[in-house]
Write a structure and sequence with these properties.
Elements (H helix, E strand, L loop, with lengths): L6 E6 L5 E2 L15 E5 L1 H4 L42 E3 L1 H7 L3 E5 L10 H14 L4 E5 L3 H12 L3 E7 L4 H9 L3 E5 L3 H14 L3 E3 L8 H5 L1 H9 L7 E5 L4 H15 L9 E6 L4 H7 L26 H10 L3 E5 L1 H14 L6 H15 L8 E5 L8 H10 L3
Parallel strand pairs: 5-13, 6-7, 6-9, 7-8, 10-11, 10-13, 11-12
Antiparallel strand pairs: 1-2, 1-3, 4-5
Helix pairs in contact: 3-4, 4-5, 8-9, 9-11, 10-11, 12-13, 12-14
Bound molecules: zinc ion.
Length: 401
């Protein structure tokens, strides 16, 4: 395995056991827990200037700029130069929320138009390091498309299980990338069940399911390093993350602790999870003070990425919110679609409905006076607006526009 200098292996987040990354591609063999990459942080000796030190790559954006805190070096990566997305000022949104600044991390500008590309790049790189020929997962749609693209890039066959309600764009592009796609009648839980049945029978399928592979949440760490560097290492007052499974939020939480512990910044910012109220298990568990979410019996939201009725590791997501002094907020689907349209109209920015959920959630938080008038709020994007053009347009049409 070709790894970075400080990468030391994998540690189980549940039982604490350590493993060699070359031996374990997925869950903890002892307890079935989630494995997490570990590093020798003392050996890292990073400074705020570290990431730009290579003169050829100085200013070169992308997640591998942060390879020192990733398991694999750029040279060994399956990459399409993902990451390096802009942090865009949204002055009208700031005015609307009554805060100093709102900055949108526009993750729609990734190779397949979603934040999931960051995790897919690192996880497919791990699959390549393990010599995988086939990768498999279940997906609500967007991350399935991302993995299909990276598998194609890495010369692997992908096997993706999507629910029938996954978007046409996702299904079409999984096909276009040459992926083997199973459209499962029902919703994401049905797709996961179908995936797990097949995965159990196939030892040649390398699992890229979220929180089964140790590397998808790890890849999502990079968005936080990037936004801090873009803010010239000034901590924002809040980071709002659209949250379905919570892979992004768990990655950002790890990065926030790393950046504090490495001395790059002094503290961690409050992290907020934004969900749709049609499927808000994290918000409900947070409000009720529970450590784990209870499954949502009848999930129903137009935000496919956020329709995760039973997040695999809600405990890690809830821990991220409580540990950072953040919170969880749900917005109504109609408000989310209106927000997507408003951002497009007034800021020019195209946001997927999941991205718009972060903005709609931030608006709800502003109504509760969560933010101060000078605060800098970062909204993490989930995906590009054209992923959900039909949904957002249909909302305008329903309003006679
Ligand atoms: Zn374990």
């Amino acid at each position: 395995m070709e790894t970075t200098d400080a990468f030391t292996g994998l540690e189980c987040l549940d039982c604490g056991a350590s493993f060699d990354a070359a031996d374990e591609p997925g869950r903890c063999p002892d307890c079935g827990g989630v494995l997490d990459p570990t590093y020798d942080y003392d050996a890292l000796d990073l400074t705020r200037n570290s990431f730009a030190r290579d003169p050829i790559r100085a200013g070169r954006a992308g997640i591998w700029r942060y390879e020192a805190v990733l398991p694999f070096p750029r040279e060994a990566a399956v990459t399409m130069d993902e990451g390096g997305t802009p942090l865009v000022e949204a002055p009208r949104l700031a005015e609307e929320l009554g805060v100093g600044r709102v900055l949108v991390k526009d993750e729609g500008r990734n190779p397949t138009g979603v934040a999931a590309d960051r995790g897919a790049a690192v996880a497919v790189s791990a699959a390549a390091q393990h010599g995988a020929t086939d990768v498999a997962m279940a997906s609500p749609g967007n991350d399935g498309q991302a993995v299909a693209a990276y598998a194609a890039r890495g010369g692997m066959d992908s096997h993706t299980f999507v629910p029938s309600r996954a978007s046409f764009v996702n299904k079409a592009m999984i096909n276009v990338h040459g992926g083997d796609m199973y459209v499962v009648e029902g919703r994401i839980d049905d797709a996961i069940e179908a995936y797990e049945d097949v995965q159990a029978e196939r030892d040649d399928y390398y699992a890229l399911q979220r929180f089964v592979t140790p590397y998808r949440h790890e890849g999502r760490k990079t968005v936080y390093y990037e936004l801090l560097e873009q803010l010239e290492w000034e901590l924002p007052d809040a980071v709002v993350c659209p949250t379905g499974e919570g892979v992004g939020l768990v990655g950002v939480h790890k990065a926030a602790r790393e950046c504090r512990d490495l001395g790059l910044v002094d503290d961690v910012p409050p992290l907020y999870a934004a969900q749709s109220d049609g499927c808000a298990p994290i918000v409900e568990a947070f409000d009720e003070g529970r450590d784990e979410a209870e499954p949502v019996e009848y999930p129903d939201t137009i935000c496919g990425d956020l329709e995760i009725p039973e997040p695999a590791r809600s405990d890690l997501v809830l821990d991220a919110l409580r540990d950072t002094g953040g919170g969880a907020v749900a917005a109504d689907d109609q408000d989310i679609m209106d927000t997507a349209a408003t951002i497009a109209l007034h800021e020019g920015l195209e946001a997927s409905v999941a991205s718009a959920a972060a903005a709609a959630g931030a608006w709800e938080l502003s109504q509760d006076e969560t933010f101060g008038e000078d605060d800098t709020i970062v909204l993490l994007g989930a995906g590009a607006g054209n992923k959900d053009a039909d949904t957002i347009r249909s909302r305008l049409m329903a309003k006679g526009m």
